[in-house]
Amino acid sequence: MRIFLDTANLEEISRAVALGLIDGVTTNPTLLAKAGLSFPEGVLEVCRAVQGPVSLEVTKEDAAGMVEEGRKIASLAPNLVVKVPVTLEGIQAISVLSKDGIPVNATLVFQPLQALLAARAGAKYASVFLGRLDDVGHDAISILGECLEILEAYGMATELIAASVRHPMHVLRAALLGTPIFTLPFGVLLGLVEHPLTRSGLERFLQDARSVASSMRYPK
Ligand code: E4P
How far is the CA of 129 from the centre of ligand 1 (A)? Predict the structure, then answer.
């Protein structure tokens, strides 16, 4: 199981890397705009900050444009992964880039057949957007389950990423399905660790420890 951080915020990335839990980063144009990351300097800083794949999304809509931009992205740093939306044009671009040996993260996947076609086109990763599915009244977790099942049925090497994760329950349910990769906003990552009973339990232990502190002697 691997955890990517879904952000373009350098401070969040360095804090998460320090936790020792981060295997990669995913970004999208919205996250880049929000973080105000410079291009390519800021993106390269992200690539240096994390040991693992960093997904950067193409901004062109036609296949030729996506391929050209994807090749440029891949040439910037060895750990960059080209993020390509699963449209007809995108599938064409995924085929070309993958045949060139460029790793692709097929993004904006909302149903199992999109995952299957992205895998057939050679994508290394496919990102299933859980939160956005739930937002429009679909059962995101059962769709994710079908995506996992369909790739497994055909022995596809493409790895699914649980994306658009909004809360720890998404992570729990996706983990119970054996989803190989999660891409998490920093706040959700923190939410996986923090529990009010851990906090209150620790406060109580520390309070009691202070009352016996004077009698505690560690051997030298
Ligand atoms: C995935 O790679 C995307 O960047 C991301 O998970 C989108 O999440 P959102 O639906 O919260 O914007």
Answer: 7
